[in-house]
Each structure stands twice: as structure tokens, then as C-alpha cells.
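Page 37, continued from 36.
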């Protein structure tokens, strides 16, 4: 199947015979589902006869709509939206902002360009669907859930003061465009593994006044969850958040019918009968066509209900199922109520503005009551509903706004902020130039001078200071360090800058496993000013070995006292942070520095020569330093500035060079991104004449031996572990390449055993029009020569299960020996099983003989130079000639 498939046009629904009623007849709560293999109606029963809400599985994701920048493919999403309107049930847009399945071209943009692209994307959705009822605004943003989240997070402003400012920004952008839509945050592992992180994220959004209307629990993690544990987790989440819940992606993935039935009977009534649950969406229902292993979460198998589906039909017909309450009567949002304190962390003595944003869809507001710590603080009768609160008492302050309409209906929203003691430097303001010791962050409190993701101090150096709260301080050789770091945590330091100007830094880290990143920012009342960008922390050999990462601040520091914030941008227990040394630098922008590497791309565990060219028009060069991922590799004091660097891991290495002149001035930082490839090896030996199985592309990696437009393996065939997102599908009694997109490619090392002219026979399928791919040969210079274009016929709309053989000829003759062939998709949606190559005209040498001519330095077929007396086939200027 292919995610870019064109849906079959809906027609003739009213003429269906024997239509069954939807499972949910509750007027306020839906039981929904998703599209199946890019189709709406699938199997014996029409979608609308079973479900009364629909979510596109992939069709409304950014990458599916705008895979090519500026070109929007709305067709599939339009069909789903129209279907929902025709049957008068909700359509949920899934999703606006996600650290996965956004277009690949977004990664190549600057931060500002990425932000503008997100704005343009939201504007395009607004223009196409101005009246959306439900939206997954942000999807799967808990740290570690999506590797590419930083691309989106950075574009929307980063974590900021709350740690989730970028998510708040996304919700504000959505609310600006769809004020009447139910705006949802959606994530997975909410009931078992990431419950605390989920609560912290959503509660922060709520308390900060973000226009979030509900939280979505995907519920993929419940196959092995007991009824007691599930009930307790669901209650804990709701008691912590007190806003509406959706079960957004429920499935029980197992081939064990009894276990699936048991879980449905244990869990589904708890979800459905909770009056704070607004609806349940199952994530697929046709066995073999869901995202789980072998599609085993499906409820209907070969047209027959599995026991869980039989039970679900019976349960949904019960009076209890029909009468349970919902937080959204009629499945729509009437009230928009959000409480926004001026800050979530106030200092004692602050005067804090508190705003209640309130609006109604059809009703009229009479007044708004604001409660602080469950006591009525004020009643407001005119918008804007804003009041000032003086923070005199330490501790948490719960807020509750009650909006009362003219018909006496009431709508509530909670928030909270905490009042702390004023900030104080731990050992006095830190002089800069100088050293910031990680453990000496300012005294204060959680969310005032630091933020830690849990309430436990797990470090071995906890006794160092009594006011550290839950910050994890580790004992290390010679002192202390910050350990047990998690994304979103931060520490602040009051510094006293003695000399204004630009500063460089040496940051000391230990990271046994890698995967973390940090940044440094200036923390002011107006917000955070980034000083470094997001910097990956290098992997070290163990937790006690520290490496120094060198960098330069991007903005000058002013003289005097100010607050610097050290931020953990990504990683889960990813690094220990010891200290940062800051030194003032004078930069001479007239100094010339450039950096190259040869060979490039480099190969893992193989030397590449790194060369720096440096010169100054007013002084002499004293030294040149070269860094790899900010770790010093070489200091060179005399030209030529060349050394050999051996990369140890596949990926990219950021090489930087800084020149220092005889007066101590430094150059601008020269940068070079070195791509490092694995060594290419054939996945399986292939000789031509013979057959290339499309799934057996060379080993090596993304961008080297293959290219896929995203990192998600949508085929889920589990054929090989090194596919890095290539979509391999079980099909045609084996494995095939599927879910293909334009410009994706795969390469194959082949051994041509017979020279000559060739034909091909490609076994392919497509359920869409205009599918095609080219067969090309890759030269030593990396250039691809096209050998044939294979036009893949469409068997039937949305049918990828019927294969045909397309025959044609190769445009250029093959020479014997190893060659590299490439299959490139230039018409999406084709499945490629295999391509068989046949030698139609073997090269004997006689066919290419020309008339005898004057020869210059002829060679025989073995490459040996021969004299004028030689008779037979010789090679002159690349041509075979018969010398008689």
C-alpha cells in the first residue's frame, strides 16, 4: 500500500442495502476510527455504519500535503473531510505541529525560514478548512518521542521560561485561526511509561494560559496494562489536569483473541463512562491493515468480527453506553476559557497580573468569578477580565475562573502559580571572565533559579548544598558536577561581567551514551536571549571522563550583573555538566580563514586530510586550532595547516577552525560540515545477467546507498534493520519497496559477467496513476547516467496487490566488472519487487570492429601495450579495433 494513494471517490452511499446503525448512538460522545490504507470504506461494512468520527491516519500530516515545497496535495484529506460532512460526524485534523512526518525540505531551512514555513502551513490549512471542529495541534512532544522535534521546537522559539514556550506558541497560532475548534495536545505512553512527563507538559500549558481545550491519550500502551493500573493512571492524569480527555489512538495489538477481548472489557468501559472523556478513536479496525505487528490490532479479520468487536457492538448498544456524559455536549465547544497568570513562578512581593480569556460560541457572558486558593478574589463583569494580585505569601496558589452566562450556565478553568523567595547568588556573583561551576547555581527555588524534571535529588553529591532542591549534584574527581540531566531542565547563574565584549567558552561534559544537547541564554524580565544556539554534547568513553567543548557566544555581553541560563535542550540522562570557562576575545574580521577536507564525504575509520588556509593583512598567524564537534583536534603553529582526521561514526561532523595572530586577535570561525559514510557493501551478491531484488539495496546508510523522504518505516516488514526509513513491504510472496515518493532512490552493487546490450523486466505494481522510476548507472564521480525509465501501470485505483511485468531495453551497453546501479523514483506510489536484466547482444569484440587505420599506442584486451606486429582486437582511444 502507499501513503500517497488517491482515495476512491465516495458515491452511492444512500443506496446501500442493509445499513447498520453506528455503534455509538450517544449524542454527546463519539466512537471514531481512522482511514484504512488510505481508504475510508474498507471491507463489507461502510465506515459510517460503524463509526461516527474520523481521523486521517496520514492524509492530513504536513509531509503528506506539502512534500514538495509550495505544492499542496489536498485530495485525500478533502475526501475525508467531505465524507465526515456528508454523514454529519466530526472530522479531526491530525496534526498541525509534529517532530515527525514534516516535509524533508524543512530541515534545510534556517530557524526564521522554518518558522515562516510553519506559519504558511497553518495559513494554508486555515484557508482550506476554515471551520475545523477538532485539531491535534501538537503531537508527541515529550522528550525522546520524536528525534526531529528540535527542528520544530527551535523554529517556534524553544522551551523558554516555561520549558514549553514553543508548544504554547503553536496553540496560540492555532487559536488565532480556529477559535471555535477543540484544540488538543496528543501523545503516547501516557498511561504507563511517560505519565509524569505527560502531566507536567499538559499542566504547564494549562497553567500558562495556553488555549488548550483537551488532552489526547493515544493508548497504544495498554495491551499489557492491568485494569487496576490503567484505572489508577487515568484517574491520576485527570485529577492533575482537570480538563477534558480524548482517547485518541486506542488499540490492543495481539493475535490472542482472548487477551484482546479481556483488555477491551476491562478498559473500554472505564474510558467511555468517564464523564471527562469526550470520545474514543480506535486506531484501525481491519486486521492486517493497522500499524501494529502484522496488523494484529484489527477487530475485523477476513470479514469476521473478532471476539472484542462482537463485545464492543453489544456494549455500545447498552443503555449505559448511550447515556454516559461528555464535557462537550453535542461534540462541539461552546466556551473558550483560559486563565493566564503573568508568570508561573513569582517572587515574593511581585505584583502579578492575572488574565481570564473567556468567550462563548452562542451564549453571552454575564460575569467572571476568579478564585485564589479556593477563595473568591474578585468578580469581573467587563472584558478584558484582568486583575492584579500581590504575591505576599510563599507557596503554590491555585487559580479557578468560573464564567457565568446570562442563562446561568457555568464554565470553569484551573491554573496555578507559585511564589518563591527572591533570587540570590549562591557564592556571590560570578566574575566574568572566569569560571561558572555547574553546582553553584543561584539560590532560590524550582522554576525561579532552576528547573528539575522530578522531585528527587538522585546525585551522589546531594550533601554539597542544602538548598539544591531536586537538582541532581554528582561528586566527581576534584569537586562536583550536575548529573541526571533531562531535556527541559535549566540552571541560572548571576554573573558580574567585568569587561563588555564577545566571549568564548570551554564547557566540560561527560557523556557515556551521547544524545544530549545544551544551550546558554541571557535571562531577563523580557525573556530569554539565546547566546549559543543548540549545541550537541559529544560522547565520551564513560561518565567520569570529561571532554572540553569549545565555542563562542553569538552576542556580546554587557558590563555589569546579569543572569545566564544553562539549558538542557535534549537527552534523557544524557550528560554530566561540570563547568564553563568564559574568556573575552578580540576578533579581527579581516583575517582570512577557510577549511576543507579530502576526501569528502569521508569514510568511517579512514583518514581524511583536513586543511586550513589562514592569513592576516596586518599581522602574522601564530596558530590555527581545528575542532571536530567543538572538541579540539589539533593546534598547528606553522603552514601548511594540514592534519589527518579519522572519523569514528557515521553521520556528520562539524569541523571548525580558528586562527590567532601574533597580537592575540582571533579570526572568524571557519566551518565545514563533513559527511561520514559507512563503507559500502552489497546486501546480497548480485551478478548480471540476473535479478536485482529491490529490497536488497547496498548497506551504507541514508544519503549514501539510499535516500528516503522521511525516517519512518511505513512498510514495517521487519526485513532488515539497516533500512533507516526505507519502506519495505511484505507483498507478492516476498518483500518489495513500497510507499515510494519522488526523488527517493536505492543503489545496488552488481557484478556484470557478460558485456553487451541488455534488456530489463521489472516486476511492479501501483494503485495510482503516473508512477515511474528510472534505472541509472552511478559513475566514479557520483554522476548518474539514465539507462531506462520504467513507467508503472495502475492496475486499479488504490490496488497495490496486483503485480505486472514491464519490459524494456537498456540504452547503453554494459562492460564487465563491478558497477553501481540506482533506482530513482520520479513518479510516486509504485511498488518495486525486482528487476531482471538479460543480455540480448553479447559483446564479442567483432561487432565493434572498425576499418583498419593508423594506430597509436594500441593495447590488447588485457590492457597491455602491444607493438605494430600484433594481430587481433586492440583498444585505441577507448575503441575496439580489429588489427589484421
Amino acid at each position: 500500500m502507499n501513503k500517497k494513494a488517491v482515495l476512491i471517490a465516495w458515491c452511492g452511499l444512500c443506496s446501500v442495502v442493509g445499513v447498520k446503525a453506528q455503534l455509538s448512538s450517544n449524542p454527546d460522545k463519539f466512537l471514531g476510527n481512522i482511514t484504512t490504507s488510505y481508504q475510508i470504506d474498507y471491507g463489507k461494512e461502510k465506515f459510517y455504519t460503524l463509526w461516527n468520527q474520523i481521523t486521517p491516519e496520514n492524509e492530513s500530516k504536513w509531509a503528506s500535503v506539502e512534500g514538495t515545497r509550495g505544492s499542496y496535495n489536498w485530495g485525500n484529506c478533502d475526501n475525508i473531510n467531505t465524507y465526515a460532512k456528508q454523514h454529519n460526524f466530526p472530522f479531526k485534523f491530525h496534526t498541525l505541529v509534529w517532530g515527525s512526518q514534516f516535509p524533508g525540505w524543512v530541515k534545510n531551512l534556517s530557524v526564521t525560514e522554518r518558522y515562516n514555513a510553519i506559519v504558511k502551513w497553518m495559513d494554508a490549512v486555515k484557508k482550506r478548512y476554515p471551520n475545523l471542529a477538532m485539531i491535534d495541534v501538537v503531537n508527541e512532544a515529550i522528550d525522546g518521542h520524536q528525534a526531529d522535534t528540535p527542528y520544530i521546537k527551535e523554529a517556534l522559539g524553544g522551551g523558554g521560561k516555561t520549558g514549553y514556550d514553543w508548544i504554547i506558541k503553536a496553540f496560540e497560532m492555532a487559536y488565532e485561526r480556529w477559535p471555535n475548534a477543540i484544540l488538543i495536545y496528543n501523545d503516547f505512553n501516557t498511561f504507563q511509561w511517560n505519565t509524569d512527563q505527560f502531566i507536567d507538559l499538559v499542566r504547564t500549558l494549562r497553567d500558562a494560559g495556553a488555549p488548550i481545550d483537551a488532552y489526547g491519550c493515544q493508548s497504544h500502551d495498554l495491551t499489557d496494562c492491568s485494569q487496576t493500573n490503567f484505572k489508577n493512571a487515568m484517574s491520576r492524569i485527570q485529577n492533575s489536569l482537570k480538563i477534558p480527555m480524548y482517547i485518541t489512538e486506542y488499540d490492543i495489538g495481539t493475535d490472542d483473541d482472548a487477551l484482546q477481548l479481556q483488555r477491551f472489557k476491562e478498559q473500554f468501559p472505564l474510558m467511555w463512562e468517564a464523564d471527562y472523556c469526550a470520545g474514543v478513536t480506535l486506531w484501525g479496525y481491519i486486521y492486517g491493515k493497522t500499524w501494529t505487528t502484522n496488523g494484529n490490532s484489527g477487530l475485523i479479520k477476513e470479514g469476521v468480527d473478532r471476539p472484542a468487536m462482537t463485545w464492543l457492538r453489544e456494549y455500545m448498544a447498552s443503555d449505559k453506553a448511550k447515556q454516559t456524559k461528555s464535557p462537550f455536549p453535542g461534540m462541539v465547544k461552546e466556551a473558550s476559557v483560559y486563565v493566564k497568570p503573568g508568570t508561573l513562578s513569582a517572587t515574593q512581593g511581585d505584583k502579578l497580573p492575572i488574565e481570564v480569556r473567556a468567550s462563548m460560541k452562542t451564549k453571552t457572558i454575564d460575569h467572571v468569578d476568579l478564585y485564589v486558593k479556593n477563595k473568591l478574589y474578585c468578580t469581573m463583569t467587563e472584558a478584558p477580565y484582568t486583575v492584579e494580585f500581590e504575591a505576599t505569601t510563599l507557596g503554590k496558589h491555585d487559580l479557578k475562573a468560573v464564567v457565568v452566562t446570562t442563562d446561568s450556565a457555568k464554565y470553569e478553568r484551573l491554573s496555578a502559580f507559585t511564589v518563591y523567595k527572591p533570587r540570590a547568588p549562591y557564592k556571590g556573583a560570578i566574575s566574568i571572565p572566569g569560571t561558572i561551576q555547574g553546582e553553584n547555581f543561584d539560590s532560590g527555588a524550582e522554576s525561579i533559579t532552576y528547573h528539575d524534571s522530578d522531585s528527587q535529588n538522585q546525585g551522589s553529591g546531594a550533601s554539597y548544598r542544602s538548598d539544591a532542591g531536586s537538582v541532581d549534584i554528582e561528586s566527581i574527581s576534584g569537586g562536583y558536577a550536575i548529573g541526571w540531566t533531562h531535556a527541559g531542565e535549566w540552571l541560572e547563574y548571576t554573573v558580574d561581567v567585568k569587561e563588555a565584549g564577545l566571549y568564548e567558552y570551554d564547557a566540560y561534559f561527560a557523556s557515556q551514551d551521547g544524545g544530549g544537547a545544551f544551550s546558554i541564554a541571557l535571562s531577563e524580565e523580557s525573556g530569554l536571549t539565546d547566546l549559543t544556539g543548540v549545541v550537541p554534547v559529544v560522547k565520551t568513553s564513560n561518565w567520569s571522563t570529561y571532554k572540553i567543548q569549545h565555542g563562542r557566544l553569538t552576542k556580546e555581553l554587557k558590563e555589569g550583573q546579569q543572569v545566564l541560563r544553562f539549558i538542557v535542550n535534549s537527552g534523557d540522562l544524557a550528560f554530566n555538566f561540570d563547568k564553563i570557562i568564559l574568556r573575552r576575545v578580540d576578533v579581527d574580521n579581516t583575517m582570512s580563514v577557510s577549511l576543507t577536507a579530502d576526501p569528502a564525504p569521508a569514510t568511517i575509520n579512514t583518514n581524511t586530510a583536513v586543511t586550513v588556509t589562514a592569513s592576516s593583512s596586518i599581522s602574522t598567524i601564530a596558530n590555527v586550532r581545528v575542532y571536530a564537534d567543538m572538541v579540539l583536534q589539533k593546534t598547528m603553529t606553522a603552514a601548511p595547516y594540514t592534519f589527518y582526521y579519522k572519523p569514528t561514526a557515521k553521520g556528520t561532523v562539524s569541523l571548525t577552525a580558528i586562527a590567532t595572530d601574533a597580537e592575540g586577535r582571533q579570526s572568524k570561525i571557519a566551518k565545514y560540515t563533513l559527511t561520514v559514510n559507512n563503507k559500502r557493501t552489497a546486501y546480497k551478491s548480485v551478478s548480471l545477467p540476473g535479478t536485482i531484488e529491490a529490497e536488497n539495496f547496498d548497506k551504507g546508510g541514508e544519503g549514501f546507498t539510499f535516500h528516503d523522504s522521511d525516517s519512518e518505516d511505513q512498510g514495517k516488514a521487519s526485513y532488515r534493520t539497516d533500512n533507516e526509513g526505507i519502506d519495505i513491504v511484505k507483498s507478492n510472496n516476498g518483500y518489495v519497496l513500497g510507499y515510494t515518493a519522488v526523488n527517493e532512490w536505492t543503489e545496488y552493487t552488481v557484478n556484470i559477467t557478460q558485456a553487451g546490450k541488455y534488456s530489463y523486466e521489472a516486476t511492479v505494481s501501483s494503485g495510482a496513476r503516473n508512477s515511474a522510476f528510472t534505472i541509472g548507472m552511478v559513475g566514479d564521480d557520483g554522476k548518474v547516467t539514465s539507462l531506462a525509465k520504467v513507467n508503472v501501470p495502475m492496475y486499479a485505483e488504490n490496488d497495490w496487490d496486483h503485480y505486472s511485468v514491464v519490459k524494456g531495453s537498456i540504452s547503453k551497453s554494459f562492460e564487465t566488472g563491478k558497477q553501481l546501479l540506482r533506482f530513482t523514483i520520479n513518479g510516486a506510489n509504485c511498488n518495486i519487487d525486482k528487476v531482471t536484466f538479460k543480455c540480448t547482444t553479447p559483446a564479442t569484440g567483432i561487432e565493434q570492429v572498425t576499418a583498419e587505420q593508423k594506430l597509436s599506442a594500441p593495447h590488447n584486451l588485457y590492457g597491455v601495450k602491444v607493438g605494430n606486429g600484433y594481430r587481433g582486437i586492440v583498444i585505441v582511444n577507448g575503441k575496439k579495433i580489429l588489427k589484421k
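The first strand starts at residue 30 and ends at 34. Flag for discussion at group meeting. Residues 111-128 form the longest helix (18 residues).
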